[in-house]
């Protein structure tokens, strides 16, 4: 009887709770988010053309190259004996790279400042590049908040493609030599990709979203697009966003060599090695660096009198759902990403003045992207009104940083009214004809809207559309 009584009480209690739940009815709809426009107010760069936006942009427009032959020292194998270093170097089929110039001059990356102090033991090179570029971007935007509310309304979104592979290689050597106690306690914090975003957040006290996208060669673009949406959604007013990469090391280069992704024909002429859209292309040139933007809600930027470079008008994403490294022959993934960016922007294809193509200098990828652009922009592109180029001819492929650096090039094209050239384009791919042709010289022109494409391994695609502020 007692058991029956307890069960009856439980059932009555449950029924009472159930009736209370249903009597409350459904929740009211969530509050509507007001439409918020996002603008670019600061830029920062570390690239193979130099440290800083002004240096990089000037050298890019003048047709200079940041690509050179690599040396044994570039492989970052200091812990290995000399014979192993030389043997590894000899086996590499590609011996060119786009390396960030280091030194103490104003246009060089200062390793002593960003990497070598006692406070920097947890900072790998890719993190140092991001810190340097973020410092320039924040100073350019004149955004150094001191009060708590402003810090809480500022976030960071910086991704990378590979992190610090050189640290992984060195740690593997230590384990193979049975010297586990010599492994640095900072090993894990040095290799984690989100630590670039984390260190920027900690340095400036930014307590908004702390985010890191990892989408191979589309990382930089996704980081910017995601950050813009955080501002649009009202999470924050300001985001420090972009990508970073430090991939010039033995294991990274060897891995891409084994996948036959890197150029091998131009080891004796490094500056001619990266050839986007050219018939002589045979693979990309691996590169490194960082591109960082300060994104801001439009009214917030106006209120404080910030400089306005451009507006983030569209962000499109797609998946090829086809192959781990090769795009589908009809370019459907690229078309979807560009179409979605256009739809979000409210612009028609014929209102886009310049496209910074992803084109990496690979035989298949460049041709497929060109076909996709021709298919989507049709009469606009064949009329010659749409300027097109791939800046990878000058800086190589910066992997996780590529999308951010090329987004900055697109923004600067709008800001300065100059479309940058494609270096080393001497015999264009047959997909081009008539007025549908990549630029072989920088062109002065009015650019009100520019599209930047980024496509990555795994079939991940991103397109960013920037427009002038009217």
- Cα-based radius of gyration, to the nearest Å: 25 Å
Overall geometric form: globular
User: What profile does the largest beta sheet have?
Assistant: 11 strands, mixed
Instruction: Give the termini separation.
Output: 81 Å
Please work out how many helical segments DSSP would assign. Answer: 16
Proportion of β residues?
15-25%
Structural class: alpha/beta
| Average pLDDT reading | 94
Low-confidence stretches: none
Helix content: 25-40%
Number of strands: 15
Explain what you see.
The protein is 38% helix and 17% strand. Strands 1, 2, 5, 6, 7, 8, 9, 10, 11, 14 and 15 form an 11-stranded mixed sheet that branches. A two-stranded antiparallel sheet has the order 3-4. The chain has helices spanning 2-24, 53-61, 82-91, 111-114, 125-141, 148-152, 165-176, 187-191, 195-204, 219-232, 250-258, 298-303, 332-345, 363-382, 392-395, 402-416, and strands spanning 38-47, 50-51, 67-69, 96-98, 154-160, 210-211, 238-245, 289-297, 310-319, 354-356, 387-389, 418-419, 443-444, 449-456, 460-467. The protein contains 16 helices and 15 strands. By secondary structure, it is of the alpha/beta class.
In short:
The chain has 470 residues and is α/β, with parallel strands linked by helices.
SSE layout:
Elements: H1 2-24, E1 38-47, E2 50-51, H2 53-61, E3 67-69, H3 82-91, E4 96-98, H4 111-114, H5 125-141, H6 148-152, E5 154-160, H7 165-176, H8 187-191, H9 195-204, E6 210-211, H10 219-232, E7 238-245, H11 250-258, E8 289-297, H12 298-303, E9 310-319, H13 332-345, E10 354-356, H14 363-382, E11 387-389, H15 392-395, H16 402-416, E12 418-419, E13 443-444, E14 449-456, E15 460-467
Parallel strand pairs: 5-6, 5-7, 10-11, 10-14
Antiparallel strand pairs: 1-2, 1-8, 1-9, 3-4, 7-8, 9-15, 12-13, 14-15
